[in-house]
């Protein structure tokens, strides 16, 4: 009972890097398959956790934007298949007169006969990419980008600042669209559809740019990106270890991806490269001059989130090695997947645990006081 009160009923913010590890693990699982059952379950897992653990912050409202982007990706993939896609299959749907291209563009087929199998292949490819986009949107909706920046190592101050400003554009755009649309409605402008969207498009872009610049200026005023003076020896150590680390990680990944190379060579090279990178980051972190207050704890809830996100990725990799036919479906001839990978299904079910086994966000005190004031007996009598 005490465990439930501490980790489930308590209210605190989960570390943002834990949510990113969870989301990237699920995105990696989605990238290994085109099985529509697994993609649908992955999408449902992401939506379940987001809707149960997101707050009322501006970045939390940006999740529908990623859903729309995923939908547009599927539609775009279908359109591009009709225009220039490889026309394969046996069940003919319709035919558009093909466009004859010059000889130097041989192999590119513009329009032509569209088959059902080709459309299904294009749809599953779009769903795979769209699910990965939704996973990134889930991480962006659950993790506070400002807390994410504070928890970065000092050596990644400049890069982290640029990345955080980039990923915070979508939440800021969602907040700007909400405020501008509400102000437009209060003024009596009830235009909807394309006309209403066109009226708020430029104000939203302008407000988003202003807020991004204000965020950059505020971070500069607080010392982000500033570096202390370090000796030449530390600079050389940082550069040498960083170069060896990048080289080791690159060579290790190349050998791992090469199926003909032995794993007992790839894994040590990759681990050595990661070690060099960690040493470089630790040495370079001494150049950080800004002080971090109110550090977020890393406890059992964060480990739970990370582990439940990595499990689907491991299950997908294991299943693709043991039974690749259940992960990759060939749609010619047309048929539905014969088997469903149970290991991946179990991994995705485990990935839903953060939706009900992690602490909820703390309540907004200002909003609670306002609600109590509205519902007070004195106000009711008035």
Automatic annotation (TrEMBL):
Instruction: Give one Pfam family.
Output: CbiQ
Compartment annotation: Membrane
Q: Which InterPro entries does the UniProt record give?
A: ABC/ECF_trnsptr_transmembrane
For this protein, the record's CDD domains field holds: EcfT (cd16914)
Q: Does the keyword Transmembrane apply?
A: yes
Note the topology in the membrane.
Answer: Multi-pass membrane protein
A single Gene Ontology CC annotation of this entry is: plasma membrane
Going by the entry's taxonomy, the superkingdom of the source organism is recorded as Bacteria
- Chief subcellular location equals membrane
Q: Which residues cross the membrane?
A: 20-51, 63-84, 237-257, 263-284, 296-322, 342-362
Q: Which UniProt keywords apply?
A: Membrane, Transmembrane, Transmembrane helix
- What is the name of the protein in this document? ABC-type transporter, permease components
Q: Does the record bear DNA damage in its keywords? A: no
């Amino acid at each position: 009972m005490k465990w439930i009160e501490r980790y489930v009923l308590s209210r605190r913010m989960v570390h943002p890097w834990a949510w990113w590890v969870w989301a990237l693990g699920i995105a990696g699982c989605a990238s290994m398959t085109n099985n529509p059952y697994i993609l649908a379950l992955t999408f449902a897992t992401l939506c379940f956790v987001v809707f149960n653990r997101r707050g009322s912050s501006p970045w939390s409202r940006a999740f529908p934007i990623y859903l729309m982007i995923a939908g547009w990706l599927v539609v775009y993939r279908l359109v591009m298949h009709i225009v220039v896609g490889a026309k394969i299959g046996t069940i003919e749907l319709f035919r558009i007169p093909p466009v004859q291209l010059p000889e130097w563009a041989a192999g590119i087929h513009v329009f032509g006969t569209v088959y059902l199998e080709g459309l299904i292949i294009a749809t599953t490819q779009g769903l795979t990419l769209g699910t990965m986009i939704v996973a990134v949107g889930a991480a962006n909706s659950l993790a506070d980008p400002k807390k994410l920046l504070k928890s970065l190592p000092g050596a990644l101050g400049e890069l982290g600042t640029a990345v955080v400003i980039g990923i915070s554009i979508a939440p800021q755009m969602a907040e700007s669209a909400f405020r501008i649309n509400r102000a437009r409605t209060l003024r009596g402008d009830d235009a909807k559809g394309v006309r209403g969207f066109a009226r708020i498009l430029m104000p939203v872009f302008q407000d988003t740019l202003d807020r991004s610049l204000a965020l950059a200026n505020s971070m500069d005023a607080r010392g982000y990106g500033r570096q202390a003076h370090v000796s030449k020896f530390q600079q050389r150590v940082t550069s040498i270890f960083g170069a060896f680390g990048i080289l080791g990680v690159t060579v290790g990944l190349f050998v791992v991806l090469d199926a003909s190379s032995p794993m007992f060579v790839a894994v040590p090279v990759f681990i050595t490269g990661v070690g060099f990178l960690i040493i470089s980051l630790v040495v370079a972190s001494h150049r950080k001059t800004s002080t971090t207050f109110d550090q977020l704890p890393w406890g059992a809830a964060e480990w739970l989130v990370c582990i439940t996100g990595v499990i689907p990725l491991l299950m997908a990799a294991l299943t693709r090695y043991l039974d690749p036919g259940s992960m990759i479906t060939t749609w010619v001839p047309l048929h539905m997947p014969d088997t469903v990978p149970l290991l991946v299904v179990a991994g995705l079910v485990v990935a839903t645990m953060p939706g009900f086994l992690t602490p909820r966000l703390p309540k907004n005190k200002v909003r609670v006081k306002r609600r109590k004031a509205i519902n007070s007996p004195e106000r009711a009598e008035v």
